[in-house]
Amino acid sequence: MERQRPRRLSSQAMAFVLAGGRGSRLKELTDRRAKPAVYFGGKTRIVDFALSNALNSGIRKMAIATQYKAHSLIRHAQRGWNFFRAERNEYLDILPASQRIDEENWYKGTADAVRQNIDIIDSYGVEYIVVLAGDHIYKMDYEIMLEHHVDSGAEVTVGCLTVPVAEATAFGVMDIDTEGRITSFLEKPAKPPHMPGDPDHALASMGIYVFDWKFLRELLLEDAYDESSSHDFGHDLIPHIVANGRAVAHKFTDSCVRSGLEKEAYWRDVGTIDAYWQANIDLTDFVPKLDIYDRTWPIWTYSEIVPPAKFIHDQEGRRGAAISSLIAGDSIVSGSVVKNSLVSTGGRLHSFSSVDYSVLLPHVQVNRNARLRNCVVDSGVDIPAGLVVGEDPEEDARWFRVTEGGITLITRDMIAARQASLD
Q: What's the EC number here (predicted)?
């Protein structure tokens, strides 16, 4: 007889979101904020995807571990995720690195971030813990992964996906047997092993782990006293379990959430400017690879009370228009043309300007006769009148950061330095 579960496993689980990293490959975008707090998709933050997946999966106990420049992330969580009610046994705790264990050590690694908060996790009274990276874009039902974890009898279940071998150096890479048991695990190897029979692809960790809390608790305490350990899940704990216990791989395709429009399992690490730009621009496609309009799996966030977007002027050469673009609230497109772009909350685009294939973060002002193409513009930037970016790479590189993929990043400091040099 098939075993019957009295309730969803997610009701017995908590989500622990690791959101302390800078994300240095995003360059100046993370000068003022941690990577999980970077804006995405016009109105959300990157961290909203992991949190929304947990909420939509039925998990009502969550914690966010922060460390690097955490103010923006903490403020966002307080404003946008403050609807949990303790009287319903719901919690979202923000856990900054605060020398809780002693006066010398901040979070020394991803595993140490969990270890330093053992007492808080104990207070939740959970049986399972879902450890999540807070810096990826995807939709996933963690309840399915929890069921796989329990049914397989694993000590750790690792979320995984197939990636090109050339990109696998940025991931934990694993081998599995025919039953899905992980037989080897290498964190960010210089020469990643390929999948059997497929020399072009590797099986990579998503940075998602499911543990029985009692098991992980003991393992964390053992690891804390290991002087040779870097106290990291990918470098230390997962390889240890692979070698000495039972680690099982859970394929993303088995629990990826897709609406009727999504043809592939969409997961993106937006850790570089090029990848970040592309993932945002993906949303402007006629049929986007990621459906953010799916009301059965909403991406929750802080929703500001702002007026609708506005388009004004209807003259030849001075027409407020947006084509294949996402325009957030409180934006005014005044005699400007926007194509294949995202304009986040509070954008101001003035007459005779144009924005093509660009991502504008909140409260960007594009003044008259400016032209932007293939750009990422940080929040609060005031684009000077007549500035042209994206048409002359050498000129762009004098003032701004131009990536290998030809995307130009523009920040307030860069604009200020340019203006000072020209004055």
A: 2.7.7.27
